[in-house]
Specification:
Elements lengths: L2 H25 L1 H8 L3 H9 L2 H8 L13 H8 L8 H19 L1
């Protein structure tokens, strides 16, 4: 991939993320805050963006979303690579609980 392709992918990802975020917030605000890992203020700003503003923000060469999984334990649970890992469902539930706690700390 060359630099132009990478920038195009970032812009496309930004646009998809912003559109998804707006739809989630409009459909179920509380669930959107949790799933997106954002604050009330960020949700207010996102949902109030006009289509032109969404396109302008999306055209940035920097990702507007961020990786929320920054913990080794959560990665292990999500990928189910730990020793004696339980069922896939149990591991994912445990990971979701840990990430929910991080979301609460951030808010």
């Amino acid at each position: 991939m060359n630099n132009e392709q990478i920038l195009a992918e970032i812009r496309e990802t930004n646009l998809s993320y912003l559109m998804l975020a707006q739809n989630l917030i409009r459909a179920d605000r509380e669930q959107a805050l949790f799933r997106l890992g954002i604050s009330e203020e960020s949700a207010d700003r996102l949902v109030s963006l006009s289509p032109a503003q969404v396109l302008k923000v999306a055209s940035s060469n920097t990702l507007v979303c961020r990786m929320r999984v920054d913990d080794d334990l959560v990665w292990t649970l999500l990928t189910n690579h730990g020793k004696g890992a339980g069922s896939d469902g149990t591991s994912r539930l445990h990971a979701a609980i840990l990430m929910a706690g991080k979301h609460q700390e951030a808010v």
